[in-house]
Design a protein that fits this description.
Layout lengths: L1 H8 L6 H14 L4 H7 L15 H29 L1
Helix pairs in contact: 3-4
Length: about 80
């Protein structure tokens, strides 16, 4: 399925790992904490801090903001490609 989506989007060499890495990088660029990014990616937290905080709403907001930013970045890149054509 990923191959079909990438083909339609006109992108190459995209793997699930690349998507996760890009998502994490964009989240970091938006200023989200390492804890939030780890939770977004489903990484287990070894710190005791996680027991004392509830990050469901911040996670949802972070996922939405990162996804929206990625959409903007992809849209602007596709627009630049169209201009170059």
């Amino acid at each position: 399925m990923l191959d079909r989506v990438c083909q339609r989007a006109g992108v190459e060499k995209v793997t699930p790992h690349v998507l996760r890495h890009t998502f994490a990088s964009v989240a970091g660029g938006l200023g989200y904490s390492e804890l939030t990014i780890a939770a977004l990616l489903g990484h287990a937290s070894r710190g005791i801090t996680q027991r004392y905080i509830h990050i469901d709403e911040p996670l949802r907001a972070a996922a939405t903001a990162v996804s929206n930013r990625m959409l903007v970045l992809l849209s602007s890149q596709r627009g630049a490609e169209a201009i170059d054509d």
